[in-house]
Automatic annotation (TrEMBL):
Keywords: Acyltransferase, Signal, Transferase. SMART domains: IGR. Residues 1-25 form the signal peptide. The keyword NAD does not apply. Gene3D superfamilies: Zn peptidases (3.40.630.10). It comes from Thecamonas trahens ATCC 50062. The keyword Transcription does not apply. This is Small ribosomal subunit protein mS41 SAM domain-containing protein.
């Protein structure tokens, strides 16, 4: 019986594999069946595969911008990103002056639903820091974060056809994060500065609901701080997922009491998020502070990597991303009943930002709480108000009073 069941399962898996209507899966991933639940998505991701990608591929080259090792790492990353269905690759090339002369750079951007008005950016840098005297591979800085983004994107890929149509992801692998000599405003984050300026000129920054940056993940203690008020809600959501994961037993024993340290923190670090933060983009920066002791030393290598924190953090991010792609809560939640007889017009007036000008676009209180972003777009509500209304109705469901801040 067991053997028959196993045979049957093999046949089903084979049939799904053969009949799946997308391009052939990457050789790194055996299956591209959509993960129906957050747990299924989490379980489909592999820290071992992340470590393999980060350390057994050209990504592990010394990859200082404008060198052959960098070119090979870039070509490998581009090939990986092109294999992930549902994402379109854009290569943002530019040149800039550095203390070591003029250099060529390239940010790699893989976008799902490129025209969708709500964007979630997931970023990490793929260049490595130049050191004289030893070959710096930057396993945690940031080969592993890049490989984590590849793994997350591949896991999300089969879910994208059923994602909210107004939501898109931008996986951004930044070039030129590291200083060539010493970290200054002009000798660092070359790629992030260029991309933030480009997207500002293209009026794309207002579409970014959250700019998430991961860095220095893979060894040592990982304590993440809630350093940016605009992303505090998401930070606490990640802390909630971690707490639930500990209770359910899928978070390892690697680190106690937690990776995500709740409570506002002033612990800010300069990194690729800065040019976006300065342009008022909401930023979530997941970098361990204090930094691991191997940071910017020869010890930041493959042999120091630990699968447990990579698996734990990958799992937390996977469950969060699943909730964005499959927002069951939004679909299943009935609108919270209006308190004190509040009308939809009063609600829209109280949340400010001129949302009350669009009161007539909603026929009822229930419609105010059930329309998705794309429906609001069809009713000519501008993106700024759409985002604010979606945010404020969700907050109201969570028992926050309507307010204009
Ligand atoms: Zn670094």
């Amino acid at each position: 019986m067991q053997r028959q069941t196993a045979t049957y399962l093999v046949l089903v898996v084979l049939a799904v594999y053969l009949l799946w209507p997308s391009a052939p899966p990457s050789p790194l991933r055996p299956s591209l069946v959509p993960a129906a639940s957050p747990a299924a998505l989490r379980r489909s991701l592999s820290a071992a595969r992340v470590i393999e990608m980060a350390t057994q591929s050209p990504l592990y080259n010394v990859r200082v911008p404008d060198t052959p090792g960098h070119a090979a790492a870039k070509a490998w990353l581009m090939a990986q990103l092109r294999q992930i269905d549902g994402f379109e690759l854009t290569v943002h090339e530019f040149v800039d002056d550095t203390p070591l002369g003029r250099k060529a750079f390239a940010n790699l951007i893989a976008s799902s639903a490129p025209d969708a008005p709500r964007r979630i950016v997931l970023g990490a840098h793929y260049d490595s820091k130049l050191f004289d005297g030893f070959e710096f591979r930057g396993a945690i800085d940031s080969a592993v974060p890049c490989a984590m983004l590849l793994e997350l994107a591949a896991g999300l890929s089969p879910l994208l056809p059923s994602a909210p149509p107004d939501l898109g992801f931008d996986i951004v692998l930044f070039d030129g994060e590291e200083a060539f000599v010493d970290w200054t405003a002009t000798d660092s984050i070359y790629g992030a500065r260029a991309l933030a300026a480009k997207w500002a000129a293209e009026d794309r920054l207002a579409r970014i609901e959250l700019f998430t940056l991961i860095d220095l993940i893979g060894t040592g203690r990982h304590v993440f701080h809630d350093a940016h008020p605009a992303s505090s809600g998401v930070f606490n959501r990640l802390a909630d997922i971690e707490a639930a994961g500990r209770a359910a037993g899928w978070i390892s024993d690697y680190q106690t009491p937690s990776y995500f340290r709740r409570g506002p923190s002033r612990m800010t670090v300069e990194d690729d998020h800065i040019p976006f933060l300065r342009r008022n983009v909401p930023v979530l920066h997941l970098i361990p502070v204090p930094f691991p002791s191997s940071w910017h030393t020869h010890a930041d290598s493959a042999s120091a990597l630990e699968p447990k924190p990579i698996a734990d953090i990958l799992g937390i991010l996977a469950e969060w991303l699943h909730s964005l792609v499959r927002p069951a809560a939004r679909r299943n939640l009935r609108p919270r009943r209006p308190a004190h007889g509040m009308t939809k017009d009063e609600f829209l007036a109280r949340i400010g930002r001129e949302c009350d000008q669009y009161a007539d676009a909603f026929e009822s209180w229930d419609e105010l709480f059930s329309l998705r972003g794309l429906d609001m777009k069809k009713r000519n509500i501008p993106v700024r108000q759409r985002r604010w209304i979606l945010r404020k109705t969700e907050m109201y469901r969570q028992q926050h009073e309507p307010s204009d801040d």
